[in-house]
Amino acid sequence: MIAWIIYFRDNADYNAQYIQYYMEEGKKLGITVRLILVEELEYGVRNNQWFVTYQNKEIEKPDFIINRTIYPLLSKQFEYMGIPVFNNSFVSEICNDKARTYQHLARTGISMIDTCFYKNTRIKELLNRRDGASSTVIKSVDGHGGQQVFLLSDCIRSGNNKKQEDMIQRLGHSDVVVQPLIGGRHQDLRVYVIGTEIIAAVLRTAKEGFKSNFSLGGDVRSYELSPDEIEIVQKIINEFEFGLVGIDFIIGDKGELIFNEIEDVVGSRMLYRCSDINIVELYLKHILKNIKSMLVTPWEYQSDSQHPHFVKLHDNENPKSLRYM
């Protein structure tokens, strides 16, 4: 069985050890995991058909793809070609946009932060506001690792034009969400999920400031979810068909969970720091289970539904000529 793990070149260099884990664990399970760099892919439509080439050559299609990029268009291309992608394009589209994530999950009734959505063109207007700025946070919709999260008061005080310019530059062309600053404990919780199963939870505490991201120096420790907290997580799981994700919550002043975001391309460094869980092995076994179910029963990719996924064909239908069938 052949699998691709897809990265941008810079991220592949940074995550070389993690990629090696996939190759080693894959070998134990009979999977040849091949690193594919986005920069060397070419894809689109040719002769009225979808196509993909790698390093300017035709390449054997994999049995499945682990997409470690934030690139839903690429995921969708592979799905149209009948190749299962983990996480799927729907997860990639929704979960890599904070505004779309809040919008999608609002129907579940889970606790989340009051949030306003703004186009990028309105950022300067936000900087000119003074009301409530001392407790207002502005975030890019597609930021990760706390790098594009700003306390508005730091940027609008007199004499802080440099901070304003820095914020505008770091936000780039991204749209933004604006939220009140909550969670005086400066803690958040990441829940690791594979498929429909909760794997582990890690509590993060900021060393200073209001951002608790591990990559920014936050302290981490393992955390046991209560039955009520599990129910909250399950409501989110029910809205998606996850591969591997991290669901993040802010810890409220009373210890309650307040939904924050979902990490599609979730990192595992702090999980390894807090536990001996082999998340790569568990993920590959989950994928194999899904692939084997497709081998037993003909499936086709359902692209016109709200949740893109592979669905069983009726007995009187012929399956598409997908390589894994």
TrEMBL record:
Keyword ATP-binding: yes
Domain ATP-grasp: 102-288
Species this protein is from: Variimorphobacter saccharofermentans
Single GO molecular function: metal ion binding
InterPro entries reported for this sequence: ATP-grasp, ATP-grasp_RimK-type
GO cellular component, one term: cytoplasm
Gene3D superfamilies xref list: 3.40.50.20, ATP-grasp fold, B domain
Lineage: Bacteria, Bacillati, Bacillota, Clostridia, Lachnospirales
Name under which the protein is recorded: ATP-grasp domain-containing protein
Gene Ontology BP terms: SOS response
Keywords: ATP-binding, Nucleotide-binding
